[in-house]
Amino acid sequence: MADRRKPMRPVAPLPSADLPVVAIVGRPNVGKSTLFNRLVGRRQALVADTPGVTRDRKEGLALVRGRYVRLIDTAGLEEAAPETLFGRMRASSEGAVADASLVLFCIDARAGITPSDEHFAQWVRRQNRPILLIANKAEGRLGAASALEAYSLGLGEPLAVSAEHGEGLADLMAEIVDHLPPEPEPVDFMADAFGEDMFEGEGEEGEVVLPARPPGPMRIAIVGRPNAGKSTLMNALLGEERMITGPEPGLTRDSIAATLFDDGDQFEIVDTAGLRRKARIDEALEKMSVSASIEALKMAEVAVLVLDATLGVHEQDLQIARLIEREGRACVLALNKWDVVEDRNATRKAILDRLSISLAQMRGVPVVTFSALTGAGVQRLLPAVRDACTVWNARVPTGELNRWFESMLERHAPPLVDGRRLKLRYMTQVKSRPPTFVLFGTRAELLPDDYKRYLVNGMRETFDLPGVPIRLQLRGTKNPYAETGRKSR
């Protein structure tokens, strides 16, 4: 039975296909991420006064003078061998330029023109892409005068801006729009939003029954400890080397989102930085990375918890699973590096036994085994995510729920509290995402935790709700004589 609520006008989907791509490139620490945040209108990329904060390409949707663009923040361009970390970062930036409709080449106006600026300006010129030269950190008169040195790069007139202070952005946006390819014919996105499948049908008394899951992409957060293979999994799902990977732990610093279409469904997948124990997080930059990972988890519908199957379940894995449960997200357990596991039956049993003992709320969580490096088994992940999301959105009819509730009371009556029996009357589901139920009754708020677990486990088994948090709230009946001091008969 679906949830019956008043029909709500959906938000029009933003145009996502065939948007012009604007890539921000330049050497490290010239303010590319700060400019990216200014143009997308929020602090989406990590910013710190440290060179090399950005490692992976980060995309954002920016509205520039009435036109949507896909804005890409890239790692700093540096000369390095291809097999090194900086070489892989440069290759990622080069890939962004290859896909770009417009390149914003940034320099630091305060530092002046460096040999790296000159070298990469020549490289960008050879890519045959429209280029705008951005002299960042050009606040005040002195900065604007310093920006004039950028003429020597041969990339045209430099645009003096200060991304940190918001100066010169209006002129920059105008130039971006002028250099974009012609805008395609407009599409009535709102008409597409109200398709025939928008509503499930008529409810009682003319109410409209909304679908179990709202329209839009399914949001997935890939979480786990450092070096568990999250970025490699992201690349395997996307079918391209989008994320920088390697043997070094902690390569991913920011939460990187990408859109994937699979079997008619749209997914927004977010790769997050590895979550370590709190006591081991010292640097301010790593604290920001962890905060970005937690924020991505809060915005997700399904969390894919990636474990290194060769190492089993670590205490930090359990802490991350508890965080997923506390945030009320659906979960899929992803056992990576399965191709090098010797005794697979014993490994799977040990992991599931540890989870069932330490995390009762994760009982029945779907498990997918694969090798992100070779791609074997990765195709089973998205179907498991779909199933977990369906359970997360599930609703139980009130009549069916209360028939089950009566049978549970008959099988095991509530215990006495302070020598008096609790009178539990009925239950109802108040929301999904995750499934949340309210139990009403006299002094119901005094119900012991072990009886609550008895009810929750029964709901999980009877109504087939594996692997998702189930919330059970208690509402006691108000005593009309409590405030007067009179005793009820």
Explain what the structure shows.
GTPase that plays an essential role in the late steps of ribosome biogenesis. By secondary structure, this protein is α/β, with parallel strands linked by helices. It folds into three domains: 21-179, P-loop containing nucleotide triphosphate hydrolases (Rossmann fold), CATH 3.40.50; 218-392, Rossmann fold (3-Layer(aba) Sandwich), CATH 3.40.50.300; 398-476, K homology (KH) domain (GMP Synthetase, Chain A, domain 3, 2-Layer Sandwich), CATH 3.30.300. 31% of the residues lie in helices and 21% in strands. The chain has 13 helices and 19 strands. A six-stranded mixed sheet has the order 2-3-1-4-5-6, sandwiched between helices. A six-stranded mixed sheet has the order 10-11-9-12-13-14, sandwiched between helices. 38% of the residues are buried.
Count helical runs.
Answer: 13
Neighbour order of strands in the largest sheet: 2-3-1-4-5-6
Calculate Rg over CA atoms. Answer: 27 Å
Instruction: Give the overall pLDDT as a whole number.
Output: 80
Identify the CATH architecture of the largest domain.
3-Layer(aba) Sandwich
Number of distinct beta strands: 19
Main beta-sheet annotation: 6 strands, mixed
Helix content: 25-40%
Shape: elongated
Range of strand content: 15-25%
- Overall structural class, as computed from helix and strand content, comes to alpha/beta
CATH topology of the largest domain: Rossmann fold
InterPro entries: G_ENGA, GTP-bd, GTPase_Der, KH_dom-like, KH_dom-like_a/b, P-loop_NTPase, Small_GTP-bd
Binding site for GTP 1: 26-33, 73-77, 136-139
GO molecular function: GTP binding
Family: Belongs to the TRAFAC class TrmE-Era-EngA-EngB-Septin-like GTPase superfamily. EngA (Der) GTPase family.
